[in-house]
Write a structure and sequence with these properties.
Thrombin, subunit H, Pdz3 Domain, alpha+beta, about 35% strand, 6-stranded antiparallel barrel, elongated, 4 domains, about 425 residues, 27 strands
């Protein structure tokens, strides 16, 4: 039966009124003005960007890109006091840095505690604190923008497992805290999504999760101004890396003597979870691995046949591998990657590559180049994207010795 238009409108108004009353009730529990007043003293102005004090002894967080190449800083708190600060450790890949403010003996600084980002839900209200476009210079105060958590477990460039928010972030917000209504830091704001080359907010901001911060903090505190490296699951190749497989990621190959082999991984294992976080596909696994520093021991649940097993594997630091492959320079319209030479004793020689081989498939992908830029991108991949412990499946076309050619499958283990 068709309802009268008036009844539909009245029903909609009633529903909106109920929802509005609920939202007002929730908002009434938090006095936003009082929350901003409580947050402000722990905020840090640093090098044109932002930071936040997370411990009363002056330990503070910011983005690595805010620091550039400096190690010592003049910083100012949101309460107006100025101090010296020094770099303790940095994670250039994950864009995180830890500093120590020089606090006079016997004094403590206002701080905000780290919260639990794993408890953050889509729709939760959050406040972003920062110094967008250096507005804080005007009245010596940071700005506060209110928004909601738009997404979790998101990947944005080198930010993996990050929090997405619609709280407005702009240049100058980098390094500032993303704060819950309970006054806890659940993220460090660092990136925004832009359009048309404009460096201004388009409604999507990205924050490094407090879970990632907590994993890195002990190492960064002891880094003595140096860098801590990201970790990886070394010695394993996954089947169909770019295809999302239901509820797992399947192991295709395991390198002998690698950390994965020592942990007990076998070909055919389906990775179900990593440190209790479900792994639905390769993108999710890469996101989870991206939050860990070197030396982390991960608990990985694999499905082997009808059984599940828990494997403990030590995650190793990212270390680029020189494969020993030199390609001929592209000339004219010849864009095929032809092997010019193979370094003796290299992974390429161990894999069976020979001068004159034409690489036709790499890491499960057929290679077809239509421009010099595409070919140069592959050359860069060979130089910069293969890490120690990687297993790379490739295929080459070579002479078959009788005037023809044959395609040969090879296995390169980066060592």
């Amino acid at each position: 039966m068709r309802r009268p238009a008036g009844l539909i409108i009245a029903t909609a108004i009633l529903a909106c009124s109920v929802m509005g009353a609920a939202a007002t009730s929730v908002r009434a529990e938090v006095d936003l003005a009082s929350l901003c007043v409580a947050i402000r003293p722990a905020y840090v102005f640093i090098a044109g960007g932002s930071g936040v004090v997370i411990r009363p002894d002056g330990l503070m967080l910011t983005n690595d890109h805010v620091l550039e190449d400096r190690r010592e800083f003049d910083v100012r708190l949101g309460d107006g006091r100025s101090f010296k600060a020094r770099l303790l450790g940095r994670d250039e890949v994950g864009d995180l840095a830890v500093l120590k403010i020089d606090v006079p003996e016997g004094e403590t600084l206002p701080h905000l505690p780290l919260g639990d980002s794993t408890a953050v839900r889509v729709g939760d209200e959050v406040v972003a604190v920062g110094n967008p476009f250096a507005l804080g210079v005007i009245d010596q105060s940071p700005t506060f923008t209110l928004g909601v958590v738009s997404a979790v477990h998101h990947t944005q460039g080198n930010y993996t497992e990050c929090i997405v928010t619609d709280a407005e972030l702009n240049p100058g917000n980098s390094g500032g805290p993303l704060v819950t209504m309970a006054g806890e830091v659940v993220g460090i704001n660092g990136q925004i999504s832009t359009r048309y080359g404009l460096r201004s907010n388009t409604g999507l901001g990205f924050a490094i999760s407090s879970r990632q911060v907590a994993l890195w903090l002990p190492l960064l505190e002891k880094a003595e101004g140096g860098e801590v490296k990201h970790a990886r699951l070394s010695g394993v190749e996954f089947a169909s890396r770019d295809r999302e497989t239901p509820a797992s990621v399947v192991v295709k190959d395991v390198a002998e003597g690698s950390p994965a082999a020592v942990a007990g991984f076998q070909s055919g294992d389906a990775i179900v979870s990593l440190d209790a976080a479900a792994v639905a596909n390769g993108h999710r696994l890469a996101g989870l691995l991206g939050v860990y520093p070197e030396g982390h021991e991960a608990k990985v649940v694999v499905r082997r046949g009808t059984d599940e097993q828990t494997l403990s594997v030590m995650l190793t630091p990212l270390e680029r591998c020189r494969t020993g492959i030199d390609l001929e320079r592209p000339r004219g319209g010849e864009l095929r990657p032809v092997v010019e030479s193979v370094k003796p004793g290299s992974p390429a020689e161990a894999a069976g590559l020979k001068p004159g081989d034409v690489i036709v498939a790499f890491a499960g992908r057929r290679l077809e180049f239509s421009t010099k830029e595409e070919r140069k991108a592959f050359d860069r991949l060979l130089r910069t994207s293969i890490n120690v412990g990687d297993i790379v499946s490739l295929a080459v076309r070579r002479s078959d010795g009788s005037g023809g050619t044959a395609e040969v499958a090879l296995r390169l283990v980066a060592r």
